[in-house]
Protein: Class I SAM-dependent methyltransferase
Amino acid sequence: MSFLHQFKSLISYWLNEENEHSLHSPFVYDLYQKVIKKKPLAKSCYEKIEQVRTQFLNSDKEIELTDLGSKSTLKGSNKISTIASQGITKRKYCHFLDRLADYLEAKNIVELGTSLGINTLYLSCEASRKVTTFEGNPSLVAIAQAVFEGNKRNNVSTIEGDINDTLPKYLQQASGIDMVYFDANHTYEATMNYFKLIRKKCKDKACLVFDDIHRNAEMEKAWKDIKDDFEVTLSIDLFQFGLIFVDPEIRKQNHILTF
Ligand SMILES: C[S@@+](CC[C@H](N)C(=O)[O-])C[C@H]1O[C@@H](n2cnc3c(N)ncnc32)[C@H](O)[C@@H]1O
Structure:
């Protein structure tokens, strides 16, 4: 069912995607050229992060699973190697998120869903950024924290527990968020709930990135409703990710862009 849904969504994406030639908004054109289309820089931190990913891919360890009602695609696998190969952000997309953080000059980043901490390593690779990452599985929190310590990431705070409980508490004292990566609970209800809670604490120029917007019918509906939200001024569908801006200075527009 989900495979068929993704296939249909991909066909629709291919038929509707635009490139730089159809972009009239200077902001979207600049973002497309400098972040979406741009080839990855060879930052010195990248190689070390990929070595950590390789260690996980070769690991024969298993962890305790926690049911967080998140519609995981891992089908109950508790092997670290399976999580590393199927359950975390791929290198190309981690590079994109790092470029986006650079472009936004993001200082205050929130990541929902830490898992093994690989993408968090990318988000925190500049010391000027502070990253707050949320994870509900205690075994994964322990692994990720060891990774952050081993890589001297003093700019990462890990918040352990069910995001349904921890996010509202965190947001009571949070403000000035520049970038959010939604990569935890891929259900309609959770996605809408986290979006509504978090956007109030974001800066005008902030970017909210939703992972896997075409994964299933629930995520598709969440993406549609988020795009239609009256405060959302710009949406960009990259198939893997949906990007949202709530900047009142941008006129309302939706794009599907080649990535
Ligand atoms: C796709 S993985 C995150 C991958 C990570 N962002 C990366 O790319 O390296 C999603 C994670 O979210 C966690 N998660 C899902 N639902 C959650 C919830 N309600 N509360 C806390 N964590 C949750 C899962 O345990 C899982 O580790």
Summary: The chain has one domain: 2-44+89-256.
